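Thread: "does anyone have the structure for this chain?"

Original post by V.I.:
We have the sequence but no experimental structure in hand. Need at least a predicted one for the grant figures.
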Amino acid sequence: MSTMQDAAVRRSRTPAGLEGLPRPGRCLVMGILNVTPDSFSDGGLYVDNRAAIDRGLELAAQGADIVDVGGESTRPGARPVGLAEELARTVPVVRELARAGVCTSIDTMRAPVARAAVEAGASLVNDVSGGLADPAMVSTVAAAGVPYVAMHWRAPSLEMDRHVDYRDVVAEVRDELGRRLWELTERGVDPARIILDPGLGFSKRPEHDWMLLAGLGSLRQLGPLLVGASRKRFIGAALAAGGAGEVPPGERDVATAAVSALAAVSGAYCVRVHDVPASLDAVRMASAYLDFYDRDVDPVRETPVGAGRGSHR
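Reply from O.Q.:
Generated one for you, tokens below.
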């Protein structure tokens, strides 16, 4: 994407809030609801529609701003499911949650699933392929007029680990996302409805994930960012004693909340997590910190202006 195209896209975007989504004045928290038998940390827990609906209601009661319903695992090595199966797993759950007043999103790479879920009440489409897996997705989202998450994606789950070579992962992900953003807007998706996701863990090594987290400020120039770090491998590796092996996914929620706070302080629009209460507390603390600190630092004392004088905006 050219510099001129990049500047034009950034000028047209509205990062403060997206129509149809909550606006709590802080980083949003998206609760993960995997209606799958094979997701990497919670596969099989909510394959029954009733169990999935109950879990979605629980996530909302815990404070999730959005409940993200997914019927196909996208973990490395996962095999795709049939269209009919994905529809049967997700659409009834989305419909019942929407009827209950829960803001829901559909996690899918398929245009027919996205269309059916939006018709059932989904407020957002979350596509890990950014419209690359299904050529019809872009026109479907443009016609639906709902917010759209487009993730950095290089290959399907069965192949993603063969596409992990980067010279400068932050610069390359930013450029690839920027090109995708331009292509989406050229094909009719409202740029003010697009959220970008750097795709932690997707065609990335653990060190790449940390580099992308450290580089969120650069990526955020493109527009609102969703960060999906929850229970991922780079967290498990960082927690392992002596750097050997990995801490199991179910033991990574506290560390995930710490990453949520880091992402929120770096300006993330939304974090996507399995454990809502911990990350909700984390982003609230990030918001309180930013409200006090306000990035307004006395260059001589290197302390927030007003610190020690009892001031608080």
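V.I.: this helps a lot. The mean pLDDT is 86.
O.Q.: and The two ends are 40 Å apart (CA to CA).
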